[in-house]
Amino acid sequence: MIGLNLVYGMAGAVFAIFAVLALCERRVANAAFYALIAASFLIGDRLGDVANGVLVLALVAIAASGRMRRADAAPVAAARHGARVFVPALVIPAAALAGTLLFKQLPGLIDPKQATLVAVTCGTLIALALCFALLGARPAEPFVAGRRLADDIGWVAVMPQMLASLGAVFALAGVGTVVGDLIGAVVPAGNVPGAVLAYALGMAAFTIVMGNAFAAFPVMAAAVGVPLLIRGAGGDPAVVAAVGMLAGFCGTLMTPMAANFNLMPAALLDLKDRYGVIRAQLPTAIPLLAFNAALLYAMVA
Amino acid sequence: MLVLAGIAVIAGGFLLRFHPLLVIVASAAVTGWAAGLDPLRILATFGHAFNETRYVTAIYMVLPVIGLLERRGLQERARGLVAGLHGATAGRLLAGYLLFRQVTAALGLTSVAGPAQTVRPLVAPMAQAAAERQGATGDAAAEEVKAMAAATDNIGLFFGEDIFIAIGSILLMKGVLDGYGIVLEPFQLSIWAIPTAIAAFAIHGARLLWLDRRLARHTQPPGPAA
């Protein structure tokens, strides 16, 4: 069955090529970093948990050594292909769309849970083929250009994965229940505005800490949502759950912990301020959080 | 209670601008230690989770394609498109993208766009070109427009996707409530994402139109190093 094996094989191959190219330019730290990421993609399942942990420590050591270098100035783009350059660019989203719809019909061949990732991988392969066929790229050219982008992104590339792993340690240590108990203890019973505020702000605050509204929801539902808003105040469970989750999403917009949404684009767009995307989101997130709290109160009380 | 020390480490570490990856590892170590886990168990938990979440890093496989297309003038072409559009401003373009992102996400098409797929190669250069045509040249304006393009992508995704019934967060909510004996259909949950989706479009859309007015102020005086 085709699933994450194809996705990780492709990602691993790309990072392995980046590693070789970086080594050719004597960017040793960058090369080692890419080689470790490639190893994680290609043989991570066979390494075992402790070895994967050691791999992470090695990645962190390279990143913290400060020896990873950004790319040199890029050569000037040559716009000699006209509108044809849009074709490969649009193939990836188009393949993601078509594949997501189509692959769900082929559950025996393609893992339905990974349909989108498999589709994006196929789209990338097609786009790469078009780069050679349509734009006359030399064999190494896309990878040289891609390695340059990867050098500019640097170690921030693994930050989302690192934070997700930290979340797993938090979960094992029971951080969620402790925070939930704390918030539950603060809210007096029968105080509906207080409970609504604690729930909406708690969802946002907990999401800011964990970087993920999914981690916050079970905790806040247990501490406030179910006992105080649904059972205590008789609120509609659908409203309490749905609007609470969206309050959490407002928190996602405000936190560096949600690195894949907030720090990765800043790196990808080469912003000078690592937190520039968060700063741009705050003035939308805060009024939207207030809207969600008000909507909850209007529907529950 | 002691396990909250890890949160203090991560918040303090980010605030004091230590290396973020070191801060994350330190926070994991402190949290695990406070919960009485032995160091090997902490390392194994972290390594296991790292291996299980590789899919978030897999998107970088598009870098060779994006890199090559940019070398062949993709961003310049995207800018050229804007030049042909009368009345296109950075704010209006991004507002249109916000609507596109919300609607496609609401249909479950969360991966047709994203920072690597659309924002860097297409949306940000188009918005920048429009801003320059509005007279807002210079680094500060470029930074602001690029950051806003990324922000618009996130906001469109977050406040569109929950309208789709088969998205992860809807299934999570259903699962959690099931545990309390509260049985809901995904449709009941997704319908309640609509008011917030409209509010998000109104608030962020208004900010985008306001961005156009702010960009107009960037026009003069021209930057000294321009």
Automatic annotation (TrEMBL), chain A:
Signal sequence, renumbered to the chain: none
Acetylation keyword on record: no
Record Pfam families: DUF979
InterPro entries to which the protein is assigned, alphabetical: DUF979
Transmembrane spans: 6-23, 50-66, 86-103, 115-135, 155-176, 196-226, 238-258, 278-300
Entry keyword set: Membrane, Transmembrane, Transmembrane helix
Keyword Cytoplasm among UniProt keywords: no
Name of this chain's protein: DUF979 domain-containing protein
Organism: Sphingomonas adhaesiva
UniProtKB/TrEMBL annotation, chain B:
Keywords: Membrane, Transmembrane, Transmembrane helix
Residue ranges of the TM segments: 52-69, 155-177, 189-210
Listed InterPro entries: DUF969 (IPR010374)
UniProt xrefs under Pfam families: DUF969
Protein known as: DUF969 domain-containing protein
UniProt lineage: Bacteria, Pseudomonadati, Pseudomonadota, Alphaproteobacteria, Sphingomonadales
